[in-house]
Write a structure and sequence with these properties.
This protein has a single domain, classed as Carbon-nitrogen hydrolase (Nitrilase/N-carbamoyl-D-aminoacid amidohydrolase, 4-Layer Sandwich). The strands form two sheets. The chain has a six-stranded mixed beta sheet with strand order 5-4-3-2-1-12. It is globular, with a radius of gyration of 19 Å. The model has no long low-confidence stretch (mean pLDDT 95). The N and C termini lie far apart (44 Å). It is built from six helices and twelve strands. The longest helix has 17 residues, at 17-33. By secondary structure, the chain is α/β, with parallel strands linked by helices. α1 runs parallel beside α3 and α4 (159-167) packs parallel to α5 (183-196).
Length: 294
């Protein structure tokens, strides 16, 4: 397998659905011209994550169907460009609007629609309908098949998100984002990649967007190489704050060889010892009382 090229579309929204559609399609074409196999958008691209400081009824009305014209345009473009596209949207859903990602392969086939499981219920995202599961699909790319999963922004702060995706076979996790990527959040991504031996690609909005600072990144999950003494930096791309397309190359053959011999991921887990993690009745210390048992 060759080097899988991932394009992070660190771009600013336009303020309208139509503007975001036009700009998104244009940047996908630019990503293809740069040799990308996968193009990834920042969080909730269809409305630019414009849910703060506005009435809920106003932004909820901007939700679009995962099978509607907005998503369909990216599905068709993926087939036209022979490039996978992971586009994000405020998704219209019968249970209420969702913060979602739709993944299309290079043939224009929809692989899954993932809705953010860990919505920020301490803030305005409490008005979103959280997803119910994590998904992994074998994505057809020009470089060969790769097992791809997704988590969105705040999902990153729960190690269970990436762990479940790893257990479902993910080799690459796509992470749309809309918040400042500072040292601790970057450390979370580095840690999730390291402990699961999984590549993680994160796309954020540029620093021209309020409460965002760019910093899109790719961690390849390979901490050790036979020819190197000690560990290596798993960060293969770290964007600055400007708007643009940032392309990272991911050596999947190397990652797969690494996973066959290293000690992380699922190699030495002891699930029978982890029952407490799923016991919602345990009164654990340091847990907010208003969140207990949820």
């Amino acid at each position: 397998m060759g080097i899988l090229k991932i394009a992070l579309l660190q771009i600013a929204p336009c303020g309208t659905l139509e503007g975001n559609l036009e700009k998104g399609l244009a940047y996908c074409r630019k990503a293809k011209a740069l040799g990308a196999d996968i193009a990834l958008f920042p969080e909730m691209w269809s409305n630019g994550y414009r849910i703060y400081g506005r009435p809920v009824s106003e932004w909820a009305a901007e939700a679009v169907s995962a099978g509607g014209p907005f998503a369909e345009a990216f599905r068709a473009l993926a087939g036209e460009l022979d490039m996978a596209i992971a586009v994000t949207l405020l998704e219209a859903h019968e249970g209420g609007p969702r913060n979602s990602l739709a993944l299309f392969d290079r043939r224009g086939r929809r692989q899954f629609v993932y809705a953010k499981v860990h919505t920020c219920d301490f803030d305005v995202e409490r008005n979103l309908n959280p997803g119910e599961d994590f998904y992994v699909a074998e994505l057809d790319t020009a470089q060969g098949p790769v097992n791809v999963g997704a988590m969105i922004c705040y999902d990153r702060e729960f190690p269970e998100s990436a762990r479940i995706l790893m257990l479902k076979g993910a080799e690459l996790i796509l992470v749309p984002n809309a918040c400042p990527m500072e040292i601790n959040r970057l450390a979370q991504l580095r840690g999730r990649a390291y402990e699961n031996m999984t590549a993680i690609a994160t796309c954020n909005y540029p620093d021209s967007v309020p409460d965002c600072n760019g910093g899109s990144s790719v961690f390849d999950g390979v901490a050790y190489l036979p020819e190197l003494e000690g560990s290596r930096d798993t960060c293969v791309l770290q964007a600055d704050g400007r708007e643009g397309i940032f392309v990272a190359g991911l050596d999947l053959d190397r990652l797969r060889r690494y996973r066959e011999s290293e000690v992380h991921g699922n190699a030495y887990r002891r699930p029978a010892r982890y029952a407490l993690l799923c016991d919602t009745k345990v009164e654990a210390p340091f847990i907010r009382k208003d969140r207990r048992g949820l």
